[in-house]
Design brief:
It is a single chain. This protein is mostly helical. It is built from eight helices and three strands. The chain has helices spanning 11-22, 39-44, 64-75, 89-118, 135-158, 169-183, 193-203, 209-213, and strands at 2-6, 28-31, 52-55. It has a three-stranded mixed β-sheet, with helices on one face.
Length: 230
């Protein structure tokens, strides 16, 4: 049994959920509000961040990149040529580079601020960091997303997928983070048709379906969020 402590709109959690889906793993999902710093959760992850993957007989795995490496080591061989982290070293380096681009840079500049300001702050007390949204942070994120989207478009115009000839963790990381922003209606899809077409391909995969059918209390998804032909 696998248990994933997550937040439904947390883009890092979404990355792991889609990756697990690609491996055919259906975890027990435990909703966690990390800003509450629940003692039982701090025992699992003193950093109080989601996601955290727990599997029987293993220590908690507490970072999305670590979870991705763990899944590759324990289940990657089962996917054969569809492995999400290629076996060839040069390809692995590029997949890791782009995966971290979205897990770290995109998260810091776009998805993290937007989800925090628009969603998470609604559920936080002032002491926990809640309050009115930071309009400047939102404006910066909405500006930053444009060059990230242009970069995705450039990559898929020069390759079949972001990191090369087949789908990898890089595609999952980018699409998962975009999905959180897309739920809020903040992705300017009309600015790059190549990026939009690529996202439609990833979004159409069975592993992505659970994300698209979820609704979040008090926040309706954008009109095209679940539309595979948007």
């Amino acid at each position: 049994m696998s248990t994933l402590f997550h937040q439904p709109l947390c883009p890092q959690s979404r990355f792991v959920r889609v990756a697990l889906g690609e491996y055919g793993v259906i975890p027990h999902l435990a909703d966690e509000k990390p800003w509450e710093r629940r003692q039982e959760f701090l025992v699992l992850n003193p950093a109080a961040t989601t996601p955290v993957l727990v599997e029987e007989g293993r220590p908690p795995i507490t970072h999305p990149a670590m979870i991705a490496e763990y899944l590759d080591e324990t289940r990657g061989g089962d996917l054969g040529e569809h492995r999400l982290l290629p076996q060839e070293m040069t390809a692995r380096i590029e997949v890791r580079r782009l995966t971290m681009w979205f897990l770290e840079k995109f998260h810091a500049e776009v998805s993290g601020p937007l989800v925090t300001e628009r969603v998470f702050k609604r559920h936080m007390t002032v002491k926990q960091g809640g309050g009115s949204p930071d309009i400047d942070a939102i404006r910066a994120a909405l500006s930053n997303i444009r060059y990230h989207l242009a970069y995705i478009g450039w990559l898929v115009r020069t390759r079949d997928w972001l990191a090369g000839p087949r789908m990898t963790y890089a595609d999952i990381a980018a699409a998962a983070h975009l999905s959180s922003v897309d739920y809020l209606g903040d992705v300017p899809w009309n600015e790059d048709e190549s990026a939009k077409t690529w996202y439609a391909r990833v979004k159409s995969r069975p592993s992505f379906r659970p994300l698209l059918v979820e609704m979040h209390a008090g926040i309706a998804p954008s009109k095209t969020y679940a539309d595979l032909d948007f």
